[in-house]
Structure formats: C-alpha cells, structure tokens
From TrEMBL:
Name of the featured protein: SET domain-containing protein
GO cellular component, one term: polytene chromosome
Origin species: Knipowitschia caucasica
Pfam families cross-referenced by the UniProt entry: SET
Domain SET: 16-136
Any one Gene Ontology BP term: regulation of transcription by RNA polymerase II
InterPro entries: KMT5A, SET_dom, SET_dom_sf
Length: 182
C-alpha cells in the first residue's frame, strides 16, 4: 500500500514497469506489464475527476457523452464517480475489463480525506501480460455473445452507448488490511 500512496502523492504511474499498447480496433488500447509483478503488488491508479453521482448522471446524459471512462463507486454511504474521460496520458484509464480471469482488483484507499482507486495484483502477472480487472456490472456489451472481433473480417460493435451497469467492483481498504487479492 505504501507504494500506491507514494505514486499517488507524486501523481506518477509505475513506468517503465507498465506500457500502453494498441490491441485492436475492437478493444482499443490496453496496459501491459513489462516485468513480473507479484501477488498484492500495487499496479496502477485510476486517475480522473472525482465527481458526485449526480454530476456523473449529468455527464452521461449529455449529447454525445463518452461513458467509457466513468467509474462509479460507493464511499461513505454515498455514490461517487471518477471520470477519466480526459486523456491525461495516465495508464489507469486504459486498463480493460476481464470478468473471467482478471489479474487485478480495484481497491479504494482514502488519502487526505479523498478516495483514490488503485489496482492491485490478484496473482503473479507475467512480463508482457495485459493488465485487467473486472469492471463489475453485468451488461458490458463486449461480454455478450456475438459481440466481438470477427477474425480476418474486421470488427463489429453494438450500436449505442457502451456502459457496464451496477457500478465498479471496488473494495475499501483501511490500514493496509486485505491487500493481496481476496
Ligand atoms: C476505460 S476504457 C479502457 C481503455 C480502452 N481500451 C481505450 O483504448 O481507450 C473502457 C473501454 O474499453 C473497451 N473495453 C474494455 N474492456 C474490453 C474488453 N474486454 N473487450 C472489448 N473492449 C473492451 C470498451 O470500449 C470500454 O468502454
């Protein structure tokens, strides 16, 4: 956890241990590990604007809204959101969803009275492996049968807004308890 706090306070990503790569026109970009990461290691922070659920709803309802980067979570009995829509060059916003075999888990840590979202390794992560976590919810369109890449024939997507319902799957961590998966 100390490593996460250190990177958060400096506003830095864990480079060169992570790198961004283009995957495909279906999935877009992703984040990959350039080293072996151990179970429980801090991987990356999901950075963006901290906004209320009401503000998130307003942003979702804007014409041409991009909802790809809105991460909803609960904190202190309320609903909040981190909006990472703005491409600030950080890696957290580029981590893709995997609900079958994710290698990271999102955890909420409060620093200076402000919630931060961090990904920690759920297991050993190989060099060159894509960093993933379970976005939560149940209606991510790319998880549905018939949505995906057609090998050799380009790519297809469902039309409309892509949004995982139910909010992000995140667990609040206090005093370092519970790091290392689980
Ligand atoms: C937070 S962004 C992740 C970074 C994104 N791949 C990019 O290039 O900007 C979330 C978006 O990535 C895409 N995505 C995430 N996980 C995916 C997956 N398993 N399969 C296909 N697309 C995925 C979807 O378009 C989703 O709305």
């Amino acid at each position: 956890m100390n490593e996460a706090i250190d990177f958060a306070s400096k506003g830095l990503d864990k480079t060169p241990q992570l790198e961004e790569k283009w995957i495909s026109s279906f999935k877009g970009r992703g984040v990959f590990s350039t080293v072996i990461l151990q179970l429980g290691d801090f991987v990356v922070e999901y950075r963006g604007d901290l906004i209320t659920a009401k503000e998130a709803e307003n942003r979702r309802n804007c014409p041409n809204a991009c909802v790809d980067f809105l991460f909803d979570f609960r904190w202190r009995g309320g609903k909040w959101c981190i909006d990472a829509t703005q491409d600030d060059g950080t890696f957290g916003r580029l981590v893709n969803d995997d609900h079958y075999n994710p290698n990271c888990k999102m955890k909420l840590i409060v620093l200076k009275d402000k919630p931060h979202l961090f990904l920690f390794a759920l297991r050993e992560i190989n060099q060159g492996e894509e960093i993933t976590y379970d976005y939560g919810g149940s209606d991510c369109p790319w998880r549905k049968e018939g949505v995906g890449e057609i090998f050799g024939y380009g790519v297809f997507r469902v039309l409309g807004v892509w949004e995982c319902g139910g909010g992000g799957r995140v667990e609040e961590v206090m005093g370092g308890v519970g790091l290392g998966g689980g």
